[in-house]
Amino acid sequence: MTFAQRLAEAQQRFGPICVGADPHESILRDWGLEASPAGLASFCDILIEAFAGQVASTKPQVAFFERYGSAGMAQLERYMQAMREAGTLVIADAKRGDIGSTMAGYAAAWLGDGPLAADAVTLSPYLGVDSLRPAFELAKDNDRGVFVLAVTSNPEGSQVQGSGQPAIAAHIVDELGRWNRELWPGMTGSVGAVIGATAEARLASWGVDIDVLCGTVLAPGVGAQGAKVDQALRVGGANVTCIPLSRAILQAGPRISDMRQVWHVWSFAKDGA
């Protein structure tokens, strides 16, 4: 099965909410944990117990593991492996992007069979969408996925993404759709776009036709940034739409039953909590 098919199937069973694994220092301290590799290990243990095999997907933010160096990355590897072995799809939020052999190296790291293997990875297209070719092609070969930044939920993004005629964001989505049609003809493609759940008005004003994507959408911005689940589903259009939720879930921790309850409410009530 392709990544897009696996994501759609998992979300039919568990709903569209993707559990964010963002071990901010404040979250660790609120959970009574040290901001250290040991605290990070306990954080991962709790999330694995709470959600492994119980949700469609999880999205670890790589930066919060990188800050602890090799010890932190070891915990990221352990977390991703445990979640994937339990059947939960892992989207590594790494936002990688480069050219040539360097991009091929990033693709092999996150979409290959090494210790950082994920089901999908986030990418930045600002060296050109076609510079991401190694990741697109490896995603095709290994039945993995990518999510490429297009219309992000942060307001600063508008300065770049909304510039030009057509807008850069519209060009990116059009190009991602072209790659999906080339690599997965007649199917839902596994080259996805990051489209902020708060971006509905920008999609219209910038001329972004999200339905040309024919793929998957990662729609951040629900919860702490103010968007609701139905907004995220609208910006995703006809695409398979994955909705990450981090702070709303993690702030209910470390008690597992409380985090599961928050996840359940957001997953199965269209208007969220």
Give an overview of the whole structure:
There is one protein chain. This protein is α/β, with parallel strands linked by helices and 273 residues long. It is 47% helix and 15% strand. It contains 13 helices and 8 strands. Strands 1-2-3-4-5-6-7-8 form an 8-stranded parallel β-barrel, surrounded by 8 helices. Strand 6 (191-195), helix 10 (200-206) and strand 7 (216-218) form a beta-alpha-beta unit. It is globular and about 50 Å long. The relative contact order is 0.15.
Summarize the structure.
With 273 residues, this protein is of the alpha/beta class.
| Proportion of residues in extended strands | 15-25%
Rg from Cα: 17 Å
Distance between the termini: 33 Å
For the secondary structure, the number of strands is: 8
Unreliable runs: none
Note the total helix count.
13
Mean pLDDT: 96
The oligomeric state of the chains shown is single chain
What's the SSE blueprint?
Blueprint: H1 3-14, E1 17-21, H2 25-30, H3 37-51, E2 57-60, H4 63-66, H5 69-85, E3 89-96, H6 100-111, E4 120-123, H7 133-142, E5 145-151, H8 158-161, H9 168-183, E6 191-195, H10 200-206, E7 216-218, H11 229-236, E8 240-245, H12 247-250, H13 256-268
Parallel strand pairs: 1-2, 1-8, 2-3, 3-4, 4-5, 5-6, 6-7, 7-8
Helix pairs in contact: 3-5, 3-13, 6-7
